[in-house]
Predict the 3D structure of the following.
Amino acid sequence: MSEIPKEEYITTCTAACAGCSSSLSLRYVLKAAGPDTVLVVPACCTSVIQGMYPNTSFNVPVYNIAFAAAAACASGMSKAFKSAGKKTNVIVYAGDGGTVDIGIQALSGAFERGTNFLYICYDNEAYGNTGMQRSGATPLGALTTTTPAGKTETKKDLDQIVAAHNPPYMATACSAYPLDLYKKVKKALSIEGPKFIHILAPCPPGWRYNSDKTIEIGKLAVKTGSWVLYEREYGKLTVSGPSRTALKKPHPIEEYIRAQGRFKKATPEIVAELQQSIEKNLARIKKEEEGIC
Amino acid sequence: MLMISTGNKAIAAAVKQARPSVVAAYPITPQTEIIEQIASYVANGEVETEYIPVESEHSAMAACIGASVTGVRTFTATSSHGLLYMHEMLHWAAGARLPIVMANVNRAVGPGWNTWAEHTDAFSQRDTGWLQVFVGTVQEAYDATLMAFRIAEDERVLLPVMVNLDGFTLSHIMQSLETVDLGDFIPPTRLPYAIDVKNPMGYGPMTGPDDYFRFRWDIERSMRDARDVIRETEEEFARRFGRKYGPAEEYLCEDAEVVVVSMGTLGKEAEVAVDLLRKEGVKAGSMRLRWFRPFPDLDLKGREVVVIDRDYSFGFGGVVAASLKAKTGIECYNVIAGLGGQEVTYDDIADFVRNRRIGEEMWFGVSE
Ligand SMILES: Cc1ncc(C[n+]2csc(CCOP(=O)(O)OP(=O)(O)O)c2C)c(N)n1
Ligand code: SF4
């Protein structure tokens, strides 16, 4: 961990829940990005974590924008910095709802235009800000306030959608592996053009587990292969270290979902379906890494 | 330089001279010519602007917001459904105190798909905190756009400005246009709270009732200050370039017993109607309202007033007539005319005056 700088960019006054992995991730993102950075944040938990006027818990400028507009706003900002000859990092830090649902048009537009920015989606798999409703990224079987019997649809495959835009760099990450995340942000910011990082962000109140278990849950997501850490540089996929074991032999999905209250209504059929989709996904990633497409 | 231009091209010419750093836009009829023209200026290297061809109007305004908050000059243009699709972002731009300039080519709102002139699109954005000016000629479209940048960016204002021009009847007609040598008329943009990584701040965070309320009051205070800024800017424009504008363009109003109040191109038509009526011995005048926000004080005391509204607030009345009555207490004859580009000639307007029934409302061609 020694290579991670000591400087903190999230200070006091943060209003995050105890055990919030999204703020933990953001802490590392900002350490990697450094002070010459502007965060663009749509409506989501991050706007709460930021604290309330006149205070701010962040040490970099934060621009709050409407829910659907983060990527487009960042496009404008990035061009403005370019026109002023500045090299400032423009980083969107948006939830899954603001990314896979309402914000996907702006996201797609910005990637298609080749906007020079880093778009980070921290994925707590629901709308946290408004009290845990389903999003397009909520997994099959998970309970939310709008899917009280468990979600009947599968998780939208955001990474495939982004990959279809052929960005020069994209990656997945998880707060349970901060060094991996840190390196990915560093690498992303060294590349010109649109970059994307998708962070799995376990969320104690949303996923219904005790707040001291956040790192453990993140590790289980990776060990069971539910969440695969990888990078795709100029189209070439490389699985990251922590996911190597899962790629060979994943732990059974039960270990991950039994640790969370949100899956308590998942029937054996649903668990089997989740397990199958993990296996399919791992096989696809393995083939792609080996270059067999 | 003297030339022939459409209203749209006049706007693009003014934008080129104002040299915004960022233009983000999405096409919609009848605005498209403005952004095509700007895109070609950028492509030809005639202006150093970053042009962002966004994927929607919501994103166009969001991109302008993102650019503007860094302290650079920004412009966009839209019309009708594009403007309505921006609605949320219009509130955002004004609430964030960003001096964005936008041309809105006034067009009817569907359904009943219709691309012709109507002011309902702009009026439905009246509570967003944007300044709104309505122009009547190609020359004025150009002049008002230049002044819009200066007014918006004045530290006493720092609010976005919408320049409205009638779809087709002004956006696409050719008139003479005299461009100016701008000199230092528009100073460099200075945003007091531009994003600066050396002085990190939170922009647009959550605010409690007291702070929020103060911010709202601050917008209204700037709207009030904007009246002075507009007047000063228009006076300086007249001194430098010889063309005079005011909150309303008055034509033969001094001794008028009956005054036609209208906006946009119908206001120019009304001047011809006034000439006709004067020949008949009717002491008529025309007052073309230019600024809609902030709403000007109009001196109409002691005259009969005919208001032509090219808009309607359903279940209530014409927006201009209602605004006038609320501001001045004056009862008028409210003619609803020209919706969706309905043809309204100076003869028709003279008829409105001849047949006026003060206190009543009439839908031209439908409820006469
Ligand atoms: C147009 C619009 N619709 C709805 C909302 C209300 N809203 C604010 S945040 C949010 C959910 C955000 O969820 P997500 O993007 O997943 O981020 P999280 O809150 O989980 O961090 C919603 C629905 C809004 N701000 N704007
Ligand atoms: S709801 Fe979840 S993501 Fe939001 S602040 Fe709390 S722990 Fe973090």
Notes: The beta strands of chain A are 37-42, 62-65, 89-95, 117-123, 169-174, 194-200, 230-233, 236-239. The first helix of chain A runs from residue 21 to 33. Chain A is about 40% helix and 15% strand. Chain A has one domain: 21-290.
